[in-house]
Amino acid sequence: MVDAIEGVPGRYWQLLDDGRIQCDVCPRECKLKDGQRGLCFVRARKGDEVVLTTYGRSSGFCIDPIEKKPLNHFLPGTPILSFGTAGCNLTCKFCQNWDISKSREMDRLMDQAPPEIIAVAAERTGCRSVAYTYNDPVIFLEYAVDVAAACRGHGIKNVAVTAGYIKEGAREEFFGAMDAANVDLKGFTKGFYKSLCTADLAPVLDTLIYLKQETDVWFEITTLLIPDENDSEGEIEEMTQWVVENLGTDVPMHFTAFHPDYRMTDKSNTSAETLIRAWQIARKNGVRYAYTGNIHHKETGSTYCHGCGLRLIGRDWHLLDEWNLTQSGMCSRCGEPCAGIFEDKPGDWGRKRMPVRLKEFAEQFATQPDARPGGRGLA
């Protein structure tokens, strides 16, 4: 029996000679008969086209610190309105957001979330940017692009939190709508991607090179270090050397701690020592801005001047407690520039997480479409 498929028309697909339709958003190239869904679950064939079944629906909204994405060099200290939908185009056994990304329940998508209302909610809660996160926004490309356009109309920046598993063409449109990105580089071997994500490493590396060479998107890289899977000194050596040789010294790298979850509960938590060792290797190999994540360790969570060594931004987890940048983003002691997107002073959002119900903003917008931002209390 064919499932009932509803959704808005998608882009990036082609009709094959055998009558199937190939989805060309990501390297999986799912080949679909009528009524079939792709591996991501949210892109499906309906008649002679591919539709996106989650357009305008979200699994929830929350205001986070920008450092939680994690982005350490993009508007530090500011609040970011975060949301996702359902599904994913990877099958990571270690997924930390599996209840959302692996969801096959459309009822989980609680909030009706038109693009304009998301932009209004961000503006009226004082958020500087919107994050497409929790599940990979690549799979809801058309929705993300429309939300991004609405946000730019309100002066709101757009941030993608993604695994970078996307094809050329779709990649250009998607990142053309973004101002910043954090890309999960999940490991640095073909075997890791194949066995734990049923994916390939090469397209992710292509995305990183594309971002560096072809766009103005500010991006940072995150690797979740999993004991005995991708945390060897040799692999971290190779990964960090590749980053410096292909992306340069200024792309920040985050090494974050794994905790047992989803289909990988037999592993232990990543030790602080492992993260600190990765930080040391990255710094040794020329990465100017390396960080540890999911641990309290100010030394490896802070930003330093590559000229004189001054601590430019002090961080304890997501909390900023030191700021030594000039108004033009330079070291206050020696004048060397710090790579990133900075303002005259950091935000003061801190570590807070604040859930947001979009329905309130939809109702308010219907009655007060021209109201000015009302501050954080609206949420």
Mind explaining what this structure looks like?
The protein has 379 residues and is of the alpha/beta class. The protein has two domains: 45 residues, no CATH class; 247 residues, Alpha-Beta Barrel (TIM Barrel). 26% of the residues lie in helices and 21% in strands. It has ten helices and 20 strands. The protein has a nine-stranded mixed sheet. Helix 2 packs across helix 3. The relative contact order is 0.13. The C terminus is likely disordered.
Set out the fold topology.
Layout (H helix, E strand, L loop, with lengths): L7 E2 L3 E3 L5 E3 L7 E2 L10 E4 L2 E4 L4 E2 L2 E5 L13 E5 L14 H4 L9 E2 L2 H10 L4 E4 L8 H13 L3 E6 L7 H7 L3 E5 L5 H8 L4 H13 L3 E8 L7 H15 L5 E5 L14 H13 L5 E4 L4 H4 L1 E2 L6 E6 L2 E5 L30 E3 L1 H10 L12
Parallel strand pairs: 9-11, 11-12, 12-13, 13-14, 14-15, 15-16
Antiparallel strand pairs: 1-6, 2-3, 3-4, 5-6, 7-10, 8-9, 8-20, 17-18, 18-19
Helix pairs in contact: 2-3, 2-10, 7-8
